[in-house]
Amino acid sequence: MTERSADKAPDPTGLERNINRLAVERGALFDKAGATLGLSAVDQQRLKGIETELDECFLARRRLRAERDARRFDADLPFRGRFARREAAS
Predict the structure, then answer these.
(1) Alpha-carbon gap, residue 22 to 47, rounded angstroms
(2) Mean pLDDT, the chain cut into blocks of 10 residues (90 residues total)
(3) CA 88 to CA 53: how far, in whole Å?
(4) What pTM did the predictor assign?
(5) Which helix (H) or strand (E) holds 90?
(6) Other C-beta atoms lying within 10 Å of the C-beta of residue 18
(7) What are the domain boundaries of the chain?
């Protein structure tokens, strides 16, 4: 993920696609490490980069879910407010 993508809301579908692509590549590197008893320096750097990108993607996913939940709970507020006033008046 780049700074440019941090400025705008990520596309949930593209985000999931990116997570899946990175997870497959990470798995392939782990398979390669198991078959060859380790990774080259280049592969180790790539693995570290993949894990960083995955962390950023998961953060973006959590942000999207938090925003969605916040909108859902904000939509519920008028109903809670109305019931609270009715109970206070009784």
Answers:
(1) 10
(2) 54 93 97 92 97 97 91 68 54
(3) 51
(4) 0.68
(5) none
(6) 19
(7) 9-89
